[in-house]
Design a protein that fits this description.
heterodimer, A: 266 residues, alpha/beta, Rossmann fold, 4-stranded antiparallel sheet, 9 helices, 10 strands, 34% helix, globular, B: 368 residues, alpha+beta, 10-stranded mixed sheet, 10 helices, elongated
Chain lengths: 266, 368
């Protein structure tokens, strides 16, 4: 675990999560432990169904663990009331999804404003900050457009603006670059990296994308619900279902250096 | 109002239009029922209300004239008139009678009264004058319109030709209309010259009604005497007992349909935006935010439905009354207010029903 003077945003201690009843119980996560510190970008690698999403939802308090302890911003998850958790998600946690999950009936500006309004901002303040965030993510010119008219890359930048709206202490991104081309993917990674490094926030990214892993401070591998930290070099794990493109990239650049910070900054 | 509410509704314009149309129809239905009821209520008892007799004397057990059989001898008039405190007595005979105009035939509630006496005649005259002789008749306005009859025309009852001398209003009881002629002609129509239905009694002093009523009861066994207010209420109650169950049934069906229409639309809107709502929950939407979206939708649809319904209602009623003159409506501010309140309550109820679906949307769904 990284040494840091700051307390972790999230700490998981021997966390397990099962679904189903006694007779049909499925373990989605087994005895996972990790800590995530401010200023850190952590990648979470694993094949589909390995437990990545379960881990992300545990980290954000959307699910409660079957056993073990989740500590969110210094407080044990179990001790949060549902209202406190709702406020926590609204004010301190940002979400980025693979399929963007923008609200189609709202304009780009309104999509970002929604998060700000949930965070307690007035309409005026929300409008002002949303406009600024759209500028930062280079989509200010799309403010009045509806998501259906945007490209994939534009959608994800809007989603990222929404996630950063309340200067979230933690951004959780689930496959944020999976639907994007190289250029757009790179921009998203750079924005996430910037949020972690410039703003000193925590960013955790579930991904298959090496562009993300190159920028990550640490990597966690997850398979069949078992979480492990990978040190040094990222290589395609035989059981991890990397896309051929990724596998090719990894294979061509064998012994890839873990971090290439110069490629991560904007 | 949240812009999302408007966008959700506007995203399916046809569905919105159909729903607003459905609400508007329910509004029109409810208002029409209430207005028709008021019209019928007025037409049914206006005769009694306007014939402001202090006492009504009928045969015992006949407590109203709408659906009560009362047969009294015509010579009771003298005994009643001799009772101390009585100023005048007007005998009235009510019978169902068929009116013939060429090949057309229709039934009226024929009211025979003595033209020289005060009381018993048409409550309001829209045209012409009241009856003066046996071969004259006053018809209800709706009846006259329906059969294209006017002052100066002649109709036949049995073998008697009678000229129409007046057109009355406030005499349309929806299923039947009043007509007025002389008492003697009415008696000769049924072939019983010595009978009447009731006596309308005017007193020297209305405050004396209890005592005079008791005196009449003592003098004439077998009669019942009602003061004006009680007799009016008797007839209203009788009219309501026939109409209100029907009215309530249709109104309840209307409310159920309205609730179903609104709940269906709101539920479909929730289901279609299930993912959006899951995302909003994930993003930390406050507890009331999503519920408020549903309530706002329900209220907005209700408002549009009410506006459309009220816009359509008055021209539609005028059209119905023109096509079917016997349909008489009377709309009041209280009725419109009642319908507005019902629609708002139903919309809130529908919103509440639909909100149950929100509980089954989980933030986790945003990750699927």
């Amino acid at each position: 675990m990284k040494e840091s003077t700051n307390p972790p945003c999230i700490e998981l201690v021997d966390v397990s999560k099962s679904f189903g009843t006694h007779s049909h119980k499925t373990a989605a996560l087994r005895h996972a432990s990790l800590g995530l510190f401010p200023g850190e970008l952590v990648s979470l690698l694993g094949p589909s169904g390995s437990g990545k999403t379960t881990l992300l939802t545990l980290m954000t308090g959307l699910l409660k663990p079957t056993s073990g302890t989740v500590v969110l911003f210094g407080k044990v998850l179990a001790s949060y009331t549902s209202k406190e958790l709702q406020r926590l998600r609204a004010r301190r946690i940002g979400f980025v999804f693979q399929t963007f999950n923008l609200i189609d009936s709202l304009t780009v500006l309104e999509n970002v404003m929604v998060a700000l309004r949930f965070g307690g901002k007035s309409v005026f303040e929300a409008r002002r900050r949303a406009a600024r965030l759209l500028e930062e993510t280079n989509v200010a010119h799309l403010a009045k457009k509806f998501p259906a008219t945007l490209s994939q890359g534009e959608k994800q930048r809007v989603a990222l603006a929404r996630a950063m709206a309340n200067q979230a202490d933690l951004i959780v991104a689930d496959e944020p670059t999976a639907s994007l081309d190289t250029a757009n993917g790179r921009q998203i990674v750079q924005l996430l990296y910037g949020h972690a490094k410039k703003s000193g926030k925590c960013v955790v990214v579930a991904t298959h994308d090496l562009r993300v892993t190159h920028c990550a401070d640490r990597h966690f591998l997850i398979q069949d619900g078992v979480l492990s930290q990978s040190e040094g070099v990222i290589e395609p794990h035989p059981s991890i279902n990397f896309s051929p493109t990724h596998a090719e990239i990894v294979s061509q650049s064998s012994r890839l250096p873990l971090r290439q910070p110069e490629a991560c900054s904007q | 109002m949240n812009p999302y509410t408007l966008r959700i509704l506007r995203s399916q314009p046809l569905r919105l239009m159909l729903t607003v149309g459905g609400v508007a129809l329910c509004v029109v239905l409810m208002l029409f029922l209430l207005s028709a009821y008021n019209g019928v209520a007025d037409g049914s008892v206006e005769y009694i209300r306007k014939n402001n007799a202090d006492l009504w004397v009928l045969q015992r057990n006949a407590w109203n004239i709408l659906r009560g059989s009362s047969v009294l001898p015509s010579n009771f008039a003298q005994a009643i008139g001799n009772t101390p405190g009585v100023r005048s007595v007007a005998p009235v005979l009510l019978i169902l009678s068929a009116i013939q105009k060429e090949k057309e035939i229709a039934t009226v509630f024929l009211t025979g009264f003595e033209p020289g006496k005060s009381g018993g005649g048409p409550p309001h005259l829209a045209q012409g004058r009241s009856v003066l002789s046996d071969d004259e008749i006053v018809l209800d306005q709706a009846f006259a319109k329906k059969f294209d009859l006017k002052v100066g025309d002649t109709i036949k009852i049995q073998d008697f030709s009678m000229g129409i001398v007046g057109i009355s209003t406030g005499t349309n009881a929806f299923v039947i209309q009043y007509a007025f002629t002389t008492l003697s002609r009415t008696q000769s129509l049924i072939g019983l010259p010595g009978i009447v239905t009731c006596y309308l009694v005017t007193l020297n002093d209305r405050d004396d009604s209890q005592r005079v009523a008791e005196a009449i009861r003592n003098t004439l066994p077998g009669v019942e005497v009602y003061d004006h207010e009680q007799f009016l209420q008797n007839n209203i109650r009788e009219m309501q007992s026939g109409l209100l169950p029907f009215l309530y049934t249709v109104a309840v069906i209307g409310i159920i349909v309205l609730t179903a229409i609104l709940s269906l639309l709101l539920s479909v809107n929730i289901l279609e935006r299930r993912k959006d709502f899951a995302v909003l929950k994930t993003l930390g939407s406050p507890g009331g935010f999503l519920s408020r979206l549903i309530v706002e939708q329900a209220l907005l649809i209700s408002f549009l439905g009410l506006k459309s319904g009220l816009t359509v209602f008055f021209p539609m009623v005028a059209l119905i009354e023109w096509i079917s003159p016997e349909v008489t409506t009377k709309t009041s501010v209280e009725q419109v207010t009642a319908v507005v309140v019902v629609v708002i309550v139903v919309s809130l109820m529908s919103a509440f029903i639909s909100m149950q679906r929100l509980r089954r949307i989980y933030p986790m769904e945003a990750f699927s």
